[in-house]
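The records we work with from here on pair a chain with its fold. Taken together, the tokens spell out the fold as the letters spell out the chain. The record below shows the convention in full.
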Amino acid sequence: MLTIMLCGAADTSVVVSEFATVATALGADPWHFLSGDIFYLNNASASWRANSARSVAAADVVVFVVVRQYGEVSWTTELRQAVDDGTPFVILCLTDTYRSYLAAEADRPDPAAAVSQPIDPRLADTMRELERTYSFTIVQFDDATFSAVLRRELAKVFVHGIQALTSRARRESLASLLGNPDSLTAHDLHIAREVALDEFEDKRLRKAAITALAHRDGLDEDSTLSLVRSSEQGVARLSVELLDRLYRQRPPAHDFLAEIIDVAGDSDDVALSRRLVHSLFRLSLEDALAVACDMHVSDVGIKRRLVDHIETNLATILASHELRKAAELVLGRCLAPAGESPWKDRATAMLATLGS
């Protein structure tokens, strides 16, 4: 059964009856510490904080209510538990108290709050943190509107939940279509883009979406960069490997390529830069040589790949003065520091050819 938990100081007793009525009308089980509807454990080490955290962890939705008093457990334990668990929650505040908070923040009398009690400094600090540090929304209510405001805000939570279920269903349907990218509609491609960029999505589904997008129309510059920066190693590697198909702008923007090189160079995964070499030369020989001079080439695998591609394109490079100069710079970087290996012998021979 759906459970909705009310959290706040002891003075939430003035709204607990309305809270229970609204929650019950929505088909939920209302929880509140005043009624004993919480998880608890009575033993030698019993703790209100532990009981409260355990209750919030078990709730489906949490409603934090500010009347006038400061509830330490609510704001230091219960809110943190809800945030850490990702439990949906709303924060409601009595309008008169919110005005007192604003007056305290402005450090000047507020005529609208002149009859109010001064706000507890601890509560003012908490509300400031909620709004300014965490950017949480605090919704106001008055004595006559609590039920209506609560019902409206809970409805918003349920709408978000339904939308999340709908999105999940769409993504699951998409999974069966990604194997045939040509059949994807514009709407399917939009969902595929969302899946690819979602860092919390299953990596296999993300990689399938990336492959399908590369087969079709690719992605914009910012989206491509986001994928290359992904914290999921497999996603980042695949995105670099398919870079020339994901990023369709021709000629490629130099700033974009420079940023890609920086991302790969800063990564602990050397395979990213190794894959990038192949993608750069598929994008554009001229641009690949231009930006390769800025690559981190301490890894022998990167050097060897650069030499391989220059050798493959040597005839084209020899026909252009600009390409010859760029290739000379790249080969010079690959050969430093000196050492013996077959690919270095080839690079040295080509360097002599380019300079002749």
User: Anything to note?
Assistant: Residues 146-175 form the longest helix (30 residues). The first strand starts at residue 3 and ends at 7. The mean pLDDT is 89. The chain has three domains: 3-164, 176-248, 270-356.
